[in-house]
Amino acid sequence: MAAPRPMYHQDYIARIRYSNALPPPPIPPKLLDIPNTGLSSGQYTSAGFASRLAREQPLNIEADAELGMPIDLVGMPGVFEGDESVIHGAIDPPPAHPNDRPLLRPLSMLGKSSALNTGVSFLRRTEYITSAAVSGSPNTKGLLSQRPKPAKRPRTEGPADSADPMQMLRGIMKGFDLAYPRDAWQAPDSTDGLRGAEISPEERAAWNHPRHPSKSDVQLLDAYPVLPDPDALPLSGGYMVCKFISNPGMNNDAYDGRLDVAVLRAADPGEMAIPSDPTAAAAQQAFYNYHFFLPDQTTPVRNIKRKFSVVDPENEDDALYGGREDADEEAAQGSFKYRYVRTYETYQQTIHEDDEHGDTVVMALHDPELDVGVVPGTTQRLQKAAYYYPVVQKTFVRPRRKPKHAMMMQEEEEGKVDLLEVRVRDPDEEERVDMVEKRTRIYGGPVEKRVEA
User: Fold this and answer.
1) For residue range 19-59, what is the model confidence (pLDDT) as tens digits?
2) In this structure, are residues 403 and 248 in contact, taking their beta carbons and an 8 Å threshold?
3) Rounded to an integer, what is the distance from CA 264 to the centroid of its chain?
4) Helices (H) and strands (E) in the chain, counts
5) Which among 304, 450, 262, 290 is positioned nearest to 366, based on CA atoms?
6) Closest C-alpha to 374, from 451, 311, 453
7) Among 331, 310, 326, CA closest to 318
8) Would strands 385-399 and 226-228 be described as parallel, antiparallel, or unpaired?
9) Cα gap 424→331, rounded to integer Å
10) φ, ψ for residue 261 (rounded to 5)?
């Protein structure tokens, strides 16, 4: 018996061509010369290929002087004599046919109506919806009308030349004359002084009896004049504001008093980080790493503050250090002990070398009645005022991660200082000269201070 023949499965593909009977174009098609660069170039599949191709092709339309709309003025009376009233629109046009009025609608009425006119969209803010609903409610209109309206203050119009720079200076001087009447310039205007604008009785009464602009029940208890303190200028010519991304202290439950006398010591120049964008204005200098130190205990915090206080009569006493009875005479003098806590790295900084009084200044309220008498023998250096101090740099730091490589970790451990022994001294002669130069550059000369007995 013969073996069965193997069967092979094969699909039948039927090609059916559907006809698309379109009328021939009214004009013969125009063949374009397109360079064959292949599909790999991507220009055939780009969205702007057809638009660019249409712009490159010249127009085959010859526009005549009348732009394809011949206007025959022959037969219109008075046109060639200078009377063009015939071709102008009628003063009283005939009314449009009702069937033609939809064609004369403005563009703002075309398309779909706005959702704000028909209803309230879900994207609108809730307070707007509430105010609209309350104001439109017939029940609340009577209540709102019965509410007493606040009395409007008479509006005083300023002088016509209020934009004059001289008037602006006089307005500024008026504020100082109002605060310090005895220092007001009474002589004629000159290069030495300028007379302020005239102070109205209302302004003088508002200064003598200040009121809160929105809270009438709030009373002013005390006021501080804003003054500079040039004697407190550091060697750098300004202060540095350092913001930590997390709590630098060891106790998260309560405030650590040691933070008031903490030491933030810059690392070696070899450990500083280069900013990622050197062209940025904020990256004027390299980003340093800082070692953070705190005292061992909270006990010496008060002595450290007394050591830096210039009004404390015992700030030169070495007993504030709490010296040790060691064989070494230098060690027996004592010092403040600071322990290493962690290393911080700079991730953002802003330097104001030429604008010390920019958008950030340090403000300190000083009341000698609260300070004098806390320590016996304390003298008064400044009057009662709010003193501002220049800021030359704002730095944002965060805890630095430990290096992954063993060699880098070893180098960092070798350069780290575990203990600081800090002693306080007065600036030497060279440092004093530098401080005077920076003080003159910032404040322009000696600043007079008043200390009231």
Assistant:
1) 778 888 777 777 877 877 777 777 777 888 888 888 888 77
2) no
3) 27
4) 11, 8
5) 450
6) 311
7) 331
8) parallel
9) 15
10) -125, 25
